[in-house]
Here is the input.
Amino acid sequence: MVNEFAQPLLQWAEVYGRRDLPWQKDRDPYHIWVSEVMLQQTRVDTVIPYFQKFMARFPDICTLSIASLDEVLAYWSGLGYYARARNLHRAASVLCNEQGGSLPMDRLVLETLPGIGRSTAAAILSLAYDLPEPILDGNVKRVLSRYYEIEGWSGSGSVLRQLWQCAEKSMPVSSCGAYTQAIMDLGASLCTRSKPQCEHCPLMAECMAQIKGRTDELPSPRPSKKLPLRKNYMAILHHPKESMVLLQRRAENGIWGGLWSFPEFEGEQENGEWLQLIEDKQLPNPELWNDIIHTFTHFRLQITPLYFELDHQLEIEHKGVEWVALNRLHEHGQPAPVKKLMKQLQQEKNV
Ligand code: SF4
Here is the structure.
């Protein structure tokens, strides 16, 4: 049965919905899972080339599970939120060892896997298996908050509960995959964060935010909180003759876990370890490059890059440290600010 919310949406999607995305071609649950994870916090246009390269290298769950984490992170490099890639890799290993390399058709079992919450599990089940499991990603939250006039920030438990109830009652019992795709498409195309195009929307006649002129107010924003600022230094140790830089693999827990970064230290008082090393090795005075600000969910990081030009490869016995040739950087997944500094290095030093 199709309800009064889903009916106009499905009709609209038949004409305006997207059917050409690479993960829509075959309804393969693995493709849908990877695309859903990549699409968290990331736009469709950005995801497409990453998805295609990822699938060319890791065409099935077991291939992904036996690849090294380093390689998976290198394929993720630039997409951000790297915990997504680490969880994907861990979940692939569980699925390969315990489920014969396929995704189970049970939401509660899917939710036991690393990185799969209710909405991602529901997206896999509805899009791949046509099951009536509602999703609640950012786009869907926005549509439902406006249509049903739900007040309050969706990060609060009671608001989230109301949104799940709305998602459940809006979900039809048939055409489930088409419905899920339709509501995601509506949120991405017409019911956008600013200036929604209500005049073209199939839900316009019943949408409370549109009727009451409240599309600017809903969904309610996150209560504003100033993010704390942390500071650190990154030491860019460059050996131009051999075209190499010194990188350090970060611990797997914590930010940028498992990615390669320049040696970092927090400051003269905080962490003398690297500073001491630099002093002991009698490095030349560094060039001070412009600061970079990188924003995380809970804080902002101010990075001060220190560039050292060396005439030899320093022997540094430090955990996870490696001299890497500039033409092999693609094998080492790097967080966005490090990629930016690499670009600056290549431009300014002509390497
Ligand atoms: S009518 Fe406007 S606010 Fe309501 S769902 Fe459609 S686009 Fe969004």
Summary: The pocket of iron/sulfur cluster is lined by residues 143, 146-147, 190-191, 196, 198, 201, 203-204, 207, 209-210, 215 (CB under 6 Å).
